[in-house]
Each structure stands twice: as structure tokens, then as C-alpha cells.
Design a protein that fits this description.
7-stranded mixed beta sheet; Nucleotidyltransferase, domain 5; 23 helices; alpha/beta; 32% helix; DHBP synthase; Alpha-Beta Plaits; 4 domains
Amino acid sequence: MHKGNFLAKQSFIIIVKGVVQGIGFRPFIYKLAKTYNFTGFVKNTKNGVEIFISDATRSQLQSFCRDIKNLSPAGAIIREIDYKQSEKNNYSEFKIIKSEHSEGLTAIPPDLSVCPDCIKDILEPENKRFMYPFTNCTNCGPRYSIIKNIPYDRFKTTMAEFQMCESCVREYTDVHDRRYHAQPVCCPDCGPQIMLNEQTGENAFKAAAAIINDGGLLNLKGLGGYQIICDAADDEAVKKLRNLKNRKNKPFALMVKDADTLEKHICADSKNTLKILDTPSAPIVIENWGRLPVSKYINPAGEKIGIMKAYTPLHYLLFNHLKTDFIVATSGNLTDEPICINEQEAYEKLSHFSKDFLIHNRSIHTRVDDSVVTTVGGEDYMLRRARGYAPLPVILPEKTGLCIAGMGAHLKSSITLAKNDYAFISQYIGDLDNTKTADFYKEVYDKMNRLFGLKPEILVTDLHPDYFSSKFAKETCVGKIVTVQHHHAHLYSCMSEHGITDDVIGVIFDGTGLGSDGSIWGGEFFLLQKNLSRQFHLKNYYQPGLDSAAKHPVRMLAGYLHQMNLLDEHLDKLAPLIQQNEIVLIKKMIDRKLNSIPTSSAGRLFEAAGTLLTGETMNEYEGFTAILLENIIKDKKTSEHYSWDLMGKEIDFKNFFKGMLHDLDKGLNPGIIANKFHCSVAVMITDICKKIRQQSGCNRVVLSGGVFQNIYLLKLSKKLLQENGFNVYIHKSVPPNDGGISLGQVYKYVLDNR
């Protein structure tokens, strides 16, 4: 409690903690203090931003603090504002003073989308930055992708080679200017330039647009890496890109000039989602936008499309010369490799897509993919955390004096570094089967340690010893290595977002992950009440061929049906999907327990159901048949569902398949059966949680794991749980998939060692 006379004038020190450095926060405080006629100063310290004000009433102080919270610049994340009374000082004015040398933690700002003021600058013919593609200010532009080292000053970024002209220096040193201390500030006279073949400036834009308008593909050097661009409305261009990418069905992401342009094309139901697309983070937003004027080959297997706005002036200005409102903007990389960031690797790897490269001479120091979100109940739900978010921290409810590194999983990997109550999460790295991606993982680990000035004393890895992340930890660790079970980490990842420390039920539905008993887990019901226990799980069925069953879900389907004694009766349904000799081999593997492992994976269950109802036998990409299963759902109003059996701690879902096969025999539409399947899983989740509550009194439920990227299942489960009196917690700024594992690893260690 802060007590005192509301009308007496006093002096105060205010400390603002959070992401408040490198985003124009001190100039914001300076201008705000001037409106209150305060005298004093503002400076950066190791604890955050420190503000001293004199001659303020307590009422003015509280109003000032409210304005700091409510009016702060884009990119600021205010975690805490605290103040205390101070000795009076006779300052004649309010100043920005030199920052303290800091050994403390400083949050590094992410790359931010071009702001409205900078867009206005590039569109005004009389402005010196008219049509200039590298325009930025303290509210927008590159940050994380160009930083080489701390402190975040120009000479420590890739802008060091561009010396500011006199005009830019004046802006940079003028506290009243929005480019005050904007490290990447530049203009056409002193900054980077674009080039396409021999064309530069606006001619390069015109040449690039001509290629796209004529149905060609273009390699474009963007903010965090290269992209491959084409007209999203041109069937032939999109098909060509699909063929060259060897990408039969996986959807392409689109880019639109701005939210206003997109609004003209979308259905009313999607308009609330525009606010997420139009944020400074500017992620790809996946939504069923309705009928858009784009090629049917953008997402051949579904209706949802991911769209982002033009988040740099370069992209925005390109649209000025295009005939189309939508372009494909997909990562410039070879399959499973990281995105290209320099000209040498781009020419080597992307030339078979197009011989045309729109490049620039501002180096990218750190590759950063586009972030991907969707919405649940009007709130954003992170699927891939990268540009615009990384490396922002999650604030933990418990502090740790040690530096802890969460080394992540094997797929969709990320790294988290934590100290005190800050957990800094890296950008999406990718799947570590690929050597180039493994090298990128090492780069990210080294860079994060350098940027935050940390030396991890504890490395937390997955329980699986053969993951690259686990092996790398053993090779590099100078401290202690601790293992955390994969699905425990999923639970704690979501808990950390909501500040939960105990007394929670965890429903973790996932594809894979080594369990503490040596089997593969993935359909788990945990209870955390002082200790963490596995209460119930999906019944273990043998997964024939190990990882091949994840690539070919028809094998898992055959394996399930064989173990459920349903296969021989329904061979006619599998005959078009799998060879008879393969079925014989699967039976042998399971019966003899050869090259098979027991699994409770919900991911395998959904993929097998997807194969049964869609006829798709192979996962072109992770979870493809499960995605198809969600895509075909019809008659969402029905609540019909199949039954299951509880056998001790195991939930046997044999009746799911019995029911689906029976409905297929009756000629029921597969879309209706798909809905019944989803309803069955949601009802099962709710009933098992009720059983745990009855035994424990616990009323909080966390939903996490890769299967909860299925938004229909997520919404349905959340709704049923809430209708039964549960408080339900889902992810928001951290993915439910393996991209959140590193955070969960760290948080479990912190709570276990309080």
C-alpha cells in the first residue's frame, strides 16, 4: 500500500519493469512528464526504467502511472510499475539522462511492423523518405534480426556500416522526434538500398511487380530472411510454386497490403480477427476468411488460410505496383532447412524457384520466420512464435537465482533462457532432424546467451536421450543437466502463461514423447497437487513400425483395428488404402512385438481416424490426416458421440472405431462421423476431468499439446468443461505444440526447486 496525503506535493521514484528499453520508452516518458509539468529525469537501469519526479501530488502520481500503462509505445510490455517517496531535488526541467551501465537483464525488443506514421512518410512526395523501403522509427522496424550484441546501439547492429547523414543525426538526437535514439534510423541518402538485377530504387519495385504481374516467381529478401513471392490469384503461378517446393497440399501463407484491403474481401464473421493481423507483431493469422479472390491451390485440402499484412515498407511499396491484392509469401528455403538470410545461400538454394532476386544491402544477422496465430473466442492463440514476438519474455510467477536453459524438444524446437522471473523464449527454430536446422539451433543458443549476458548453470532437456537438443546439452553443459518428461513440459508451459503454481488438472493430447515407463505417451491426464501424478491415459496400443506409423497413419489404423479385433471384419475398407502384404507384416510386428512400441498418443488416434474417414494414407506434413479430419466436419450442432471404456487408469477408445465403422456401413456422411468423433473426445475429456475432480477437489484444467491445434476440438472441450464448472486455461502467447516445450522445461525446474 502506498499511503500519503493526496494533495501534498512530494518527490517520487518510479520503477517500470518489463520490455521497456529499445522501443522509444524514455522519449515517451519525457513527453508525458512535460504534459504534467513535472521536473526530474528518466533513465534506463538494470532494474528497468527509473523515473524521478518532483512537485507531484499523490493523485497526479497515480494518474501519471495509469497513463504510463495505458499510453505506452507499441512494443512495450509493462509488467510492473512501482514507486516510493524520495528526497526532494531541485530540478528545473525534466530530462532524459545517460543510462547506468547494467549487468542486469534487459529484454531485447522484437522486430515490429511498419507503423502508420512511417507509412505516411513513404507516401508523401515531399517527404525525404518518399518511397524509401527502409523507413523506421522508435515505434517500428527491425530489432532482433539485426542485433549482433548488447548493448542495443547502432554500432552493435548490422546498421553499423551505414553512417547517418546530418539530417538523420538531427532526428536521432532530438528528444521531440519520434526517431530519437531509433538505432536503425536512415534515409535514402545514408541507408540501405534495394536492387533487382541492374535496377535500383523505384525501378527495382516496378521490375519486381512486372515479374509477379506476369505470373512469375520472385525471391525477395525480407526482414528476417528470404521469401518466395507470386500472385496468389494466379493458378499457374501457385501450381508452379507447389511443384518446385514439392508441396502437394500444405497451405501457403498470403500477404495483403493492409487490413483495410483485406476487410473489403472478407465475411463479417472474420472482421474481429483483423485487429490481431493489424498489431505491431503482424503475425500470419489463420482463419476461415470466406471466399477470397485467390487460387484454389492456396489450400487445396481446406478452407482456412493464413494471411499477414505487409509488415515492412519494402512489402508495402511493392503492393503499390501490383495488380493483385494478395500475394503468396512463403519462406525462402529448401524443405526442412532454415530460411535463407544472405545472398550467397539464397542464390545457391533458391535459384531453381526463380532467377530473379529483389535484394538489399542491409544484412540480416538472425533469421526469423513469420509468426503464426489463430483465434479462440476472439483471443489470439499462438501456433508459431517468431517474428514480432521473439525474444520477448514470459514473466514467471516464481523467481530463480540461477540461470536455467530449457533446451526444447526435437520438432518445432525453441530455446528458453530464464533468470530471476524472466523466461526469454527464442524464435521458432524448426525440426532438428536436418543438419542445417541443427546448426541454426546452435546459433540461436549462442546468440541468446550473448544477448542476455547469461551463462546457463542448469540445462533442462527432454527425457528422450537421442533428441539432438538432449545430445547438444550434454556436449556443451558446464553445469547440471536435468530431464523433464515431454508432456509434463507441455503442462507447465501453459501453467507459466497463467501464473499457475499448483492444484491443476493437465489434459495433454500430443503426438509423441517418451514416457517415464519407456512407452510413448500422448493422451495424458495429470494432476498437480503438491506432486505431479499421471491419473489416466489413453489405452496403450502398439505402434507398428515405430516412426513410420506417424508418416503413414494407415499403418496405425491397421494396427489399431488388428489389436481391437476389428480388422478382419472390415478388411474391405482398408483394401483401397493398403496392400495386403503390408497388413500381414503389421500383424506380425504387433503380435511378436517386433519394431513396435506401446503408445497412448492422441495424435496417432486422430491421424488414424482421419485416414479412415478421408482415405488419405500418408502425412505429407506433420498431422496432415488429423487436419483433414477437422476440415471435413459437418453438422456441428449435433452432440452425438461414441462410448469408451475405463479400465483402471486406461481409457479404451475401441468403441470410437467400432462406432465409426458401423456408421460408414450405414452410409453416414464422413463429415458427420468426424463430428461425432470430435464430440466423443471432448465428452471423454470432460468426464475424466470430472472423475479427477471428484477424487481431488481440483477445479482447474489446462489443455495443451499439439493435438489442441485442432481448434474445433479445443473449443468444444473448453465449452463442455466450463459448462461442468471447470476453470479452463489454454495457451495464448506460447504454442501448445512443441514450440512451448522449452518454456515448460524451465518452469517445471523452477517450481520443483522453490
